[in-house]
Amino acid sequence: MSVNNPVARLLAEHPTLILDGALATELEARGCDLTDPLWSAKVLIENPELIYQVHLDYFNAGAHCAITASYQATPQGFLRRGLDQEQSLGLIAKSVQLAQRARRDYLAAHPQAAPLLIAGSVGPYGAYLADGSEYRGDYRLAQDDMIAFHRPRLAALAAAGVDLLACETLPSFAELQALLTLLQEFPMLGAWFAFTLRDNQHLLSSSVARPYVCSSICLPILPAISRTRRGKRLNT
Fold it and tell me: Fewest CB within a 10 Å sphere: which of 87, 126, 176, 218?
C-alpha cells in the first residue's frame, strides 16, 4: 500500500508550494494572550472562529497549505484544563475542521484556485511540557511512552481528514524514530518533518548527523516551498 503524497501531486502541476505563515503570531496580533501552557491551542477553546479567520486570510494571501492549530493540542495538555479524553480529541478534530472550512469557503469564492492542502500540526513532547524543551531537547521518554503520547493526536487528525501531517520543531532523533514507527499505523497518511538544530549538521539534542536523519526518513526533498506572512510571501 503506497503512502498518499498530496505534496508530490501538487508540485507535479505547480512549481511552488506556499505554506501558510505563523498561526500564533497572527493570533497575538489580533489580541490573543498566548502566555499559557496550551499556547495557540487555548484559542480552540476560547475563540475558534479567530483561527478560522487566520486560515482564511492566509489562503487569501496565496497559501496552498494550512497548518492546523494542533501543535500544542494534546489530551495530556487539555487534561490540565479539566477536559476529558473525548473533549480533547474533539478539540483536535476541530482544529482540522476550522482549516477545512476556511479552504471550502476560499474555494467557493475562487473555484479556479490551485489545490489546497490541510496539514495536521504535530508538536514534539517538549511542547506539551510548555517549558521551552522543544528548543533544548533536554527531555527523555522511552520509545513506547513517546508513541503512546503521540498516538491519540495523530489518530484524531487522521480521522478528521487531514491531507498529511506536519511534524514540527523536533529536537530529538529518538522522537523522530518514535513518530516514524507510529506512522506505520497510518499507512495512507504522509508527513513532513521539521527539526530544531544545534548547528547546520546536527539535531539539537543528539550527535546524529543530518545525512543519517535524511536516510532514516527516506523522503524526497521539496524543491520549492514558501511561507506567507500577513499577505506577503516569504521564501524559505
Answer: 218
